[in-house]
UniProtKB/TrEMBL annotation, chains A, B, C, D:
This is TetR/AcrR family transcriptional regulator. InterPro entries: Homeodomain-like_sf, HTH-type_TetR-like_transc_reg, HTH_TetR, Tet_transcr_reg_TetR-rel_C_sf, TetR_C. It comes from Actinomadura rudentiformis. Keywords: DNA-binding, Transcription, Transcription regulation. PROSITE patterns: HTH_TETR_2 (PS50977). Pfam families: TetR_C_11, TetR_N. It comes from the Bacteria. The lineage of its organism: Bacteria, Bacillati, Actinomycetota, Actinomycetes, Streptosporangiales. The keyword Cell inner membrane does not apply. GO terms for molecular function: DNA-binding transcription factor activity; transcription cis-regulatory region binding. Residues 12-72 form the HTH tetR-type domain.
Amino acid sequence: MQESPNPQRRSERSHRATLKAALDLCAEQGYAQVTVEGIAARAGVSKKTIYRWWPSKGAVMLEAIDEAALQPTGFSDTGDLAADLHQQMSGTLSLLTDAGIRSAILGVLAEGLQDSQLAGQVHGSLFKPRIDSFKERMRKAQQQGELAAEADVDVALDLLYGPIWHRLVAHLPLPDGPYLSKIIDAALAAVNRRA
Amino acid sequence: MQESPNPQRRSERSHRATLKAALDLCAEQGYAQVTVEGIAARAGVSKKTIYRWWPSKGAVMLEAIDEAALQPTGFSDTGDLAADLHQQMSGTLSLLTDAGIRSAILGVLAEGLQDSQLAGQVHGSLFKPRIDSFKERMRKAQQQGELAAEADVDVALDLLYGPIWHRLVAHLPLPDGPYLSKIIDAALAAVNRRA
Amino acid sequence: MQESPNPQRRSERSHRATLKAALDLCAEQGYAQVTVEGIAARAGVSKKTIYRWWPSKGAVMLEAIDEAALQPTGFSDTGDLAADLHQQMSGTLSLLTDAGIRSAILGVLAEGLQDSQLAGQVHGSLFKPRIDSFKERMRKAQQQGELAAEADVDVALDLLYGPIWHRLVAHLPLPDGPYLSKIIDAALAAVNRRA
Amino acid sequence: MQESPNPQRRSERSHRATLKAALDLCAEQGYAQVTVEGIAARAGVSKKTIYRWWPSKGAVMLEAIDEAALQPTGFSDTGDLAADLHQQMSGTLSLLTDAGIRSAILGVLAEGLQDSQLAGQVHGSLFKPRIDSFKERMRKAQQQGELAAEADVDVALDLLYGPIWHRLVAHLPLPDGPYLSKIIDAALAAVNRRA
DNA sequence: GGGTAACCGAGACGGTACGTCGGGTCTTCGG
DNA sequence: CCGAAGACCCGACGTACCGTCTCGGTTACCC
């Protein structure tokens, strides 16, 4: 992140071990129970080294999530917009089902709500890339006539992703596949309608 | 909350002072910086007394929010569904603009993501009442023909409230009034369309 | 020492346990290896509690020494000045032979050389009482004619106690009993001579 | 000191800069506040280089003191023993009045009380040379009849130097010139007297 | 006079302890 | 018996130095 010291001399071993320890502990104990001290001990790394490269536990976790979230943020383009959306959103939801990643994501999300410094990083790492590729896919759909040219992409974004986060913060069950389809259909219909 | 001791002998003065101190400190320093010790000191109350009546800082805050959230959770029924939704959702959003309440709400929301005990209370206090009266209003609209009888109320809930929370957790700007109208129109169109 | 908090509510158990742990650890590991954390752990006491009542490890040790240095600082008055001096100085020297106390005393002495705050306490606790009773005994000796009325008590103090500290800081062997007698005879002769 | 590497290739610049930085920092901040890191930074030298040539901060300081203590350890022989003693002891005392050297000397003395490895070096560098030349001067005095042949040189050493160290560790004011004369007269009288 | 072995600066590393903070429990005393 | 006050144990914080180590770079010796 803010890499004040010389990043060329950084120990790759410590770097990896820290991220791994962070995620592992998160899976085992839950985000809130994880401490920088614990990560350091588990990784066989000194606290100083962690604080040298990251400003806080949240920043470590964010990088760990990024590294672990293997599936791409990008959309595929099969020509079927609804299917592509479903695939991508399922991918996002699946991050919230694996215990370790889920705990880490909820943790950084929660911490991001309280710490504006971390908030920016959360936005940049977790949301921006997905939003960008979402918008790109939508624009492509408009060019290909799959989507009305006058459709409001921002509204579509809100209508599609909103339900996931709504249910997360309200502690309602997360959408399953079929429900996701209903949402996608409804949202596309809404932005496709003539005003 | 879990009121183990005899609530009849509870000091109303301490009770009020605690809730007030909690919100005040939240406004001044932000939720994360508020501590039980700080609340106790500010309220002129002992820590023991706080722990006697609430299990955690989050529970205090939740009660303080409840008490301070003056506008009703219920919907008015002017006969214009879109207008009623707009009014109610604006009310919810306005809670997120006042510094003190916003900080408190974000705080308990964030903490709720990490603490399943608090999560239940958050759901019960913050979300359930609003969802219930939302559904009630929707059903009334269906009876009055303002809304298609086959409209899926759950989907409507997700489409309408989702954008707010999506933008909150993604650290995007919250919707303003006109944008809210677009969302409401889109969501109602979506659930009203013939399947 | 600086007892900022209310000393009436102090836990006697923690107090005693801390002093005991300090001395024990000193005996086992040597003063330099003893840490506040170690004392706290050994005593079953929190670091906070130690820092509440003492400003530093040195202050804890000083009090521990005081409590443990059972033999009185006062001189006996058998009527034989040289014998009384010998007895008292042997007592002082014996503090420097028991491993635990020796280590603690050397430690606070060393630390006192570096920390003027502690220096004052070292002087007040370790030296002042012994110097005072030395001078008192000398004055009594003068009244009883055992010592020349014009003998310089300060010089006597320096000549008598100096050798001990000289040998300590110069890392020479400490005086044994017979050598002590030589010193005492020489010093008394010196201050008793007509100028 | 333990010069494991090839001393011929040693950088004289680094050597000098380190010793100078050590003493300067000592004067500015006091021995206890000086760190190897601080010395390295001030000297523009790497920590590794310091640890290559000295085992510890104390060893650096000891060498720095040795280099800076310009006045000779040797006694002059004017034929007046008391005067020669006074001159030499004043010289020793003057080391304890210059802020930088005083702080360094107190520091190594203090550290020497705790660290037997350093203790040996302290004895060898600071005390042994002075004691040796003291004894030599005393023996010369005996040959020249200035001092009784049967005078005990060890006792004399203790009586003369003792007061300085006694006052140092007891945090009493150090002797001034006139008082020094009293001590010298008393000590010489004591060892000169017929037993 | 080119190769190489050493010292050098810089500074990252695993550690240990620091002194502080807040959590949640417990004790004392007054009303 | 509740409440204010606050001491207590505990565990984590973020920092400071320790002494070790790995880097390039730059001598200075040896072939």
